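FAQ

Q: What does a record look like?
A: Structure on top, sequence underneath. For example:
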């Protein structure tokens, strides 16, 4: 069983205040929502083996808040490619995950996260709002075997 948790970064300031989209920081509201989402995930006993995040500032800040509340003790893997990744490349990226990892939490961006979740779970389309999470479980032993046929939708949690 492989467990994948997709988290969209929390609410961020407008790009005109930070100088560009990549450098947008979380708002006070966004930090509060990221913490609330992390508490919900903790209540669901979600304890990832690995956290991977886009290296955009708002995603990094969201991931750091999640790690503190989830008591995640390892280093967050910040990946530049997550920032502009499309659905197909995200699938390929996830399929390269080491099989020793059973639970993966990925912090990223829309529209990729929403479209990926929809393509995998074949559920009603979710447009992930800031500070939201989708849980997907796969009945496979290796990440390289991910497919919609092996995927079971677990939850959608939204705090925006």
């Amino acid at each position: 069983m492989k467990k994948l948790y997709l988290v969209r970064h929390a609410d961020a300031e407008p790009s005109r205040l930070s100088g560009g989209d990549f450098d947008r920081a979380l708002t006070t509201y966004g930090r509060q929502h990221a913490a609330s989402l992390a508490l919900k995930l903790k209540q669901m006993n979600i304890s990832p083996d690995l956290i991977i995040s886009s290296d955009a500032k708002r995603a990094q800040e969201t991931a750091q808040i999640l790690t503190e509340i989830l008591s995640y003790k390892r280093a967050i893997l910040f990946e530049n490619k997550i920032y502009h990744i499309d659905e197909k490349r995200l699938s390929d990226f996830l399929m390269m995950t080491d099989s020793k990892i059973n639970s993966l939490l990925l912090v990223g961006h829309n529209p990729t996260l929403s479209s990926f979740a929809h393509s995998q779970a074949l559920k009603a389309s979710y447009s992930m709002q800031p500070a939201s999470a989708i849980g997907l479980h796969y009945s496979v032993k290796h990440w390289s075997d991910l497919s919609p046929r092996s995927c079971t939708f677990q939850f959608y949690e939204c705090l925006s």
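Q: Is there anything notable about this one?
A: Residues 28-43 form the longest helix (16 residues).
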